[in-house]
Write a structure and sequence with these properties.
Blueprint (H helix, E strand, L loop, with lengths): L11 H7 L11 E7 L2 E7 L6 H4 L9 H22 L7 E12 L8 E12 L2 E10 L2 E13 L5
Antiparallel strand pairs: 1-2, 2-4, 3-6, 4-5, 5-6
GO cellular component, one term: cytoplasm
Subcellular location: Cytoplasm
Protein name: 3-hydroxyacyl-[acyl-carrier-protein] dehydratase
Amino acid sequence: MKESQPKVFMDLERIKKYIPHRDPLLLIDTINEIPNRDKIISSKTHRITDPVFAGHFPKNPIYPGVYYIEAMAQTGAVLIAYIREEEQLFEVKLGVLATIDEVRFRKPTGPDDTVRYEVTVEKRRGPFIWFKGTAFVQDEIAVEGKFSIALGVLKRN
């Protein structure tokens, strides 16, 4: 059973202004709400045409667990970029995953499921931000866990 369409605070094109991710690894469709400086809600509706389902698994499509973690991290990164913009801190900072902890996979999802991600900031220290994230499908927890993002300039040789 499909969920009703979530409300839209930020569409896909606006999300792309805050984070550098692009298809096929931009894993959120919509920012639904930023109720305060420590919480953000996003969502992604899976389609059978999503490239991931061609290989995971063709006869039994299941959304990969690591993609939930990445989607939560992308959601947190949008929140941090949004806050930095509000504070008029326009220096571009790339956020990369630093830690992943206490992750639990509770319910698999697949095509036609809409996943709602709720991500909250737990603490900030220097360039590090710690988050708690939960992925819901029809108000049931699918995945939950904690992670941190390190902000900085990523130099590649």
